Amino acid sequence: IIFKSKESIPEQYLHIYLVITDRDKPIARAALYFNPDLKYQQLNAACIGSVESTNDTSAFEFLISQAASIAKENGFSYLIGPMSGSTWESYRFNFENHFPLFLTEQLQQEYYNDLMVQTGFETISEYFSSFTYDVDFRFPEFEAINRYFLGLGAQVSPIFPGHYLDELNALHEFLSEAFQRNFLYTPISKE
What we know:
The chain is an alpha+beta fold. The protein has helices spanning 57-73, 112-118, 140-151, 164-179, and strands spanning 14-22, 25-33, 39-40, 43-53, 78-80. It is 27% helix and 18% strand. Strands 1, 2, 3, 4 and 5 form a 5-stranded mixed sheet that branches.
């Protein structure tokens, strides 16, 4: 495997790291996560993340079958992927790789989506990202929302890279409350 991703493997909720080899050469890998707060359709869900693989359906099927067996043995009803423990980490694949990545989108091989579908995964949610080079472009709905929040006293402030951890600490309560109704949300500690 030539690792395209420079991500580290998140350790929170990590249960086991699986690597499939062929003649001592890694051909597929994934981390299996057991987040006790993660539910799907009110049932416990494990997740598989930090996925890397050659374009080998049988190796990937074996990897997923091993992860699914371990998750089932531990009382989980669903296996969600890709998700590295929670939506606070990498948790989705991009279906259109011909655009630049947005913040939190992970670098992936274009065939990963096919491997996931071929091994039994189904899309349970979709997202949409967009960009414009026209900095003067305005959505009337956003302008109304902007006026509403400014009227409540909200302020827009930059996040300074040199004080990033302090900024995150200050944002923790706000972000936790803002995201708590999001699909597959689980709480995160300040640490």
